[in-house]
Design a protein that fits this description.
alpha/beta, METL9, SAM-dependent_MTases_sf, Blast:Methyltransferase-like protein 9, protein-L-histidine N-pros-methyltransferase activity
């Protein structure tokens, strides 16, 4: 029997997308959250199992499928990107086109992770800082979680973001958009979600987080694994110093191996690991498929009383 092969370019794209989305429907999403083996006991005891996508995550995925079905919108985005790429970064383009929203955890999942990590809003107003907040969608989810945990106490949200188009979107959410975090002190909750592997000096950023965090506060750090650093804003696209060194004789380290290395690094930088989990870092799709994902390590940390 002959295999159908669409002739036109657009027909081929739509045909490929159909097959790609069918493949997405058949993936085992439980693997996004599960571990192949245990970590050292001091870390494994802090693991918060999430097991599978909850209702909010499933709804987000269904929404991305509906958006991805709008072929004409994606054709417009493709045309716009081909022009804008000459004078805007990819993040600026996403902010301008209002596309590429991300998802990590739902409000209930953030609640579970933060409670396991010992987070409690001890003062009012409660202060939340999101470093590299993007379009603010994830910031809002965490803010909703903090509001619930604090009994709807007064909440002040601060955000930094390198992209000017994303900063405009954050301002529309009534966030306090700032350029530097050096002037802030005693923040009760700091988010640094998938930023360390995208910044020029990740160790300086960790130092800034430690100095800005309140003594009893918590920071939430997310890092995509396998680790691959990429700096969008410099010509080499490399950091001053990578977070994790490759030392596996050419073999790709497992999620569990890299997770252990990163949490050891956090301890060496003056933090305590309070809780952690594994989850997908989801992104809205395009003409080729409905959504994309990477795997995130998400760690709740506090700062040690003395950096030893």
């Amino acid at each position: 029997m002959a295999i159908y092969r669409p002739r036109g370019t657009l027909a081929r794209v739509i045909h490929a997308k159909f097959h790609n989305d069918n493949s997405l429907d058949n993936i085992d999403t439980r693997r996004w959250y599960s571990l192949a083996h245990s970590l050292p006991p001091r870390f494994q005891s802090k693991f918060v199992p999430l097991e599978q996508p909850d209702t909010t995550t499933v709804h987000w995925l269904e929404r991305t499928k509906l958006l991805s079905a709008n072929i004409w919108m994606h054709l417009w985005h493709a045309l716009a990107r081909s022009i804008l790429q000459f004078f805007m970064t990819q993040t600026d383009i996403n902010g301008f086109l209002k596309r590429g929203s991300m998802f990590i955890l739902s409000e209930d999942q953030f609640n579970k992770l933060l409670v396991a990590g010992g987070f409690s809003a001890s003062s009012e107003p409660v202060t939340l800082l999101d470093i590299g907040a993007g379009d603010g969608e994830i910031s809002l989810r965490v803010a909703n979680t903090v509001a619930e945990l604090s009994g709807n106490a007064d909440l002040r949200v601060f955000a930094t973001e390198a992209s000017w188009t994303m900063r405009d979107r954050l301002k529309k959410l009534n966030f306090n958009v700032i350029t530097e975090i050096g002037g802030l002190q005693n923040m009760e909750l700091i988010l640094c979600l998938n930023v360390l592997d995208r910044c020029f000096d990740p160790f300086k950023l960790l130092e800034d987080i430690r100095s800005t965090l309140a003594p009893g506060g918590r920071a939430v750090i997310a890092l995509v694994l396998p680790y691959m650093h990429y700096v969008e804003t410099n010509t080499s696209h490399l950091p001053i110093r990578p977070l994790l060194e490759s030392s596996n004789n050419g073999r790709q380290a497992s999620f569990e191996e890299e997770a252990t290395k990163f949490m050891e690094l956090l301890e060496n930088c003056g933090f305590n690991v309070e809780s952690w989990t594994k989850a997908p870092y989801l992104c809205e799709g395009d003409l080729h498929q409905s959504f994309y994902w990477l795997i995130d390590l998400i760690v709740v940390i506090s700062k040690k009383t003395s950096k030893t």
